[in-house]
Specification:
Elements: E1 2-7, H1 13-26, E2 32-37, H2 42-48, H3 52-60, H4 69-74, E3 77-83, H5 91-98, H6 101-105, E4 113-120, H7 127-140, E5 144-145, E6 168-171, H8 182-203
Parallel strand pairs: 1-2, 1-3, 3-4, 4-5, 4-6
Helix pairs in contact: 1-8
The protein binds flavin mononucleotide.
Residues 9-15, 83-87, 119-122, 125-126, 172, 176 line the site of flavin mononucleotide.
Length: 204
């Protein structure tokens, strides 16, 4: 059973969540995890060279393959992660989703479990709007949305950190100066494990 964890990350916060999601999915027997990054835009890639922090994060990701439509086709379950941009997913992630019309035409993603995760700069920067709007195209594709139940440790809190029933989250800070809290990573692992467990149940 293949679970695809596909993400976009410029400063590493969504990358950290993606690795935690992948770790959680690997806990499940008979699951092979495919970790993939979203293709960067050429114009953005050139700009990244002017920003040391972003360049370092890009360099760290060179060994992670770029996600293809065939990866989505091969996956039995998918977890998608994108930083929040104006309360929504990044254009890079949307471009990947918009390249799936061949999958949609044949209903190839129908019945596959899917989860989502995001990072925002600020506490109220739009985590829920990003997660909920990321779900919309997944529903068009016929996927089965998986969230994070409130029985998960760390979900009910009033601290400056992530954790939503719609998916895993973290807070990066205005300059990207924060790192995901241990609780954010644990919740991301639970999301990965939950998508993997449901994938095994639904697709066996
Ligand atoms: C164009 C743009 C729009 C953004 N919009 C938001 C936003 O609506 N809310 C927010 O909290 N952060 C916003 N951010 C900050 C990003 O969410 C932040 O850089 C990201 O969470 C870091 O994730 P990464 O380290 O995986 O790249 C925006 C950043 C950019 C470049």
């Amino acid at each position: 059973m293949k679970v695809l964890v596909v993400y976009y990350s410029m400063y590493g916060h969504t990358l950290a969540l993606a690795k935690a999601v992948a770790e959680g999915a690997r806990r499940v027997a008979n699951v092979e995890v495919m970790l993939r990054r979203v293709q960067e835009f050429e114009a953005v890639d050139e700009k990244i060279n002017e920003n040391d922090a972003a360049r370092q994060v890009q360099d760290q990701q060179q060994d992670i393959p770029i996600c293809t439509v065939d990866d989505l086709r091969a996956a039995d379950g998918v977890v998608l992660g994108s930083p929040t941009r104006y309360g929504n997913m990044t254009a890079q992630m949307k471009q990947l989703i918009d390249s799936t019309s061949a999958l949609w035409l044949k209903g190839e993603m129908e019945g596959k479990p899917a989860g989502v995760f995001t990072s925002t700069a600020s506490t109220h920067g739009g985590q829920e709007t990003t997660l909920l709007t990321m779900m919309v195209p997944l529903l068009h594709l016929g996927m089965l949305i998986v969230g994070v139940p409130y029985s998960t440790p760390g979900m009910i809190h009033t601290e400056a950190r992530g954790g939503t029933p719609y998916g895993a989250t973290t807070i990066a800070g205005g300059q990207g100066e924060l790192q995901p809290k241990p609780e954010d990573l644990e919740i991301a692992k639970v999301l990965g494990q939950r998508v993997a467990e449901i994938t095994v149940k639904v697709r066996s």
